[in-house]
Amino acid sequence: MVTTGDCRWLTENEVDTNPPLCSLAVTTLGWTYHYSNKAMDWAQARQFCQENYTDMVVIQSQRENDHLVSLLPNRISSPYYWIGITKNHKNETWRWIGNNSTWIGNQSWAEDEPNNNYSNEFCVEIYVNKGKNRGKWNDEKCSNPKYAVCYKSQCTESSCVRGTCHETVENTTCLCEPGFKGDRCQTAQCTESSCVRGTCHETIENTTCLCEPGFKGDRCQTAVQCPHPSDPLNGVYSCREGNQTFNSTCQLKCHLFVLVIGSSAITCGATGVWSGPRPTCTSSDGCVWMWSCLSLLLHLSLLDEAQKKKETYPSKAARRSDESIQ
Q: DSSP states of 277-325 as a string?
């Protein structure tokens, strides 16, 4: 701990010519406590705290209560300080300013307190004098003069990169957003769902996915896609379910009387290119065009048929020639 500011208590005969500020021992990471050198009513005390620090002190636990009392100096003539718990009506619940908490320790109040002795004791003072009431609370009229106890927040906009800053007596803590970690929530955190088909790498304020071959996208969620293959002469590609993504296959189907030359299947590769040499559709006798092959086959068939008729039925000229010879 270190002490900030030049503080000393004024004697009864001295005039306070310095600003009414003084700082307590502070922790290195958490909030700091401060107090006034002048007594003032509760509303003025809160205004003093808000103008010079963050707000009037808000006690969140018995541990903090005891810690605060151990730091506050004992003012012999008036050992009382305003704290930030109040209410507006006798039937209301005591609430802390700022966070609206209703925390009150089992032994926070002094003996026989709060008693609302004047029916309008709606503010609370804390005793720092020695004895059994040290650190105890008492309800008091808000118009009575007491010293202010303030705190200064150490949380800033830059305290937590991707989280919410929370302060305690001894440090600040960052409550990180989902997917982030680190003392300042500065590191993105990989989870099982960070990368669909890849490996997650943590970086400052982000995560990066190293995708498996054949996948892309910021989460490796999209399979690489190949363009639809161009149909060759005398054939058509058929792709299963119309899918042309990584590792999918397309089958070449040739027209009637035409054969597939090469492997009939092609596979979509990791880079979006179809694998291997493309198959072709070709007839066994070298014909490429199906209809030309059919025409040739028909022509050959007709020639063969004519030859058979010629051999079976000789021409009239040939028969007359044979008859004249006889």
A: PPPEEE-TTS--SHHHHHHHHHHHHHHHHHHHHHHHS--HHHHHHHHHH
| Predicted confidence (pLDDT) per residue in 173-219, tens digit | 899 988 888 888 888 888 888 899 999 998 777 889 999 999 999 99
Q: Specify the higher pLDDT residue, 116 or 319.
A: 116
Q: Characterize 73-99 residue by residue with b for buried, 16 or more Cβ atoms within 10 angstroms of its Cβ, and e for exposed.
A: eebeeebbbbbbbbbeeeeeebbbbee
CB 105 within 8 A of CB 94: no
pLDDT of residue 28: 36
Contact 97, 85 (CB under 8 A): yes
Distance of alpha carbon 205 from alpha carbon 186, whole angstroms: 5
pTM equals 0.50
pLDDT at 202: 84
pLDDT at residue 26 greater than cutoff 70: no
Domains of the chain: 2-152 (3.10.100.10), 190-222 (2.10.25.10), 224-282 (2.10.70.10)
Scored b (16 or more CB within 10 A) or e, 57-69 reads bbbeeeebbebbb
Half-sphere exposure of 229 (CA within 13 A, CB side): 33
Q: Under DSSP, is residue 70 helix (H, G, I), strand (E, B) or coil?
A: helix
Contact in structure between 269 and 246 (CB atoms under 8 Å): yes
Please list the residues that pair with 211 across neighbouring strands: 198
Take residue 227 and report the two structure tokens written for it. Answer: 């363009």
78 has which bridge partners?
A: none
Query: Alpha-carbon distance 153 to 29, whole Å?
Result: 10
pLDDT of residue 16: 39
Closest CA to 196 of 216, 180, 226, 224: 216
Helix or strand run (H / E) with residue 44? helix 42-52
